[in-house]
Write a structure and sequence with these properties.
Strand order of the largest sheet: 2-1-3-4
Radius of gyration: 17 Å
Strand content: 15-25%
Shape: globular
Largest sheet: 4 strands, mixed
Oligomer: single chain
Number of strands: 4
Order of helices and strands: HEEHHEHEHH
Length: 138
């Protein structure tokens, strides 16, 4: 399959998510030859799970089913650019690359009211105590 065909398939998965009452996002993971290894769509509302984004589910699938060398040769095709949560998981996943159809900026232009409000964060604090379980791990 070509990259455009794979992106169209991801867009079809997004339509399936929406038809099922979920946010309209879909993704698939392809091997280096374009063979689809796994695919999924957003189920965050029907599962009652804010992490049920297809990119995150496929990153988990890859971690459980692919060795590091195979994962590094894959491409994630997704209907929309991964959100911050999914981007963080993908950075840790070892997948080769991501190709998306709709950018986050374009998505925000289609969303009345824009994105989510950021949650305030405070820190760092208690460095001497917090470093103890971490030091020497990496």
């Amino acid at each position: 399959m070509t990259e455009e065909e794979l992106l169209r398939r991801a867009i079809g998965l997004a339509a399936k998510a929406r038809e099922g009452g979920n946010p309209p996002f879909g993704s698939l993971l392809a091997g280096p030859d374009g063979t689809v290894l796994a695919e999924d769509h957003n189920t965050s509302l029907t599962d009652g799970d804010i992490t049920a984004h297809p990119e995150l589910k496929l990153a988990r699938w890859a971690a459980q089913n692919l060795d590091a060398e195979t994962a590094a040769k894959t491409t994630l095709y997704t209907s929309c650019q991964p959100c911050g949560m999914c981007a963080g998981a993908l950075e840790r996943s070892g997948l080769g690359r991501v190709v998306f159809a709709l950018s986050n900026e374009q998505l925000l232009g289609l969303k009345p009211g824009g994105g989510f409000a950021p949650v305030p964060q405070e820190g760092p604090a208690l460095y001497e105590e917090a470093r103890v379980p971490v030091e020497g791990y990496y």
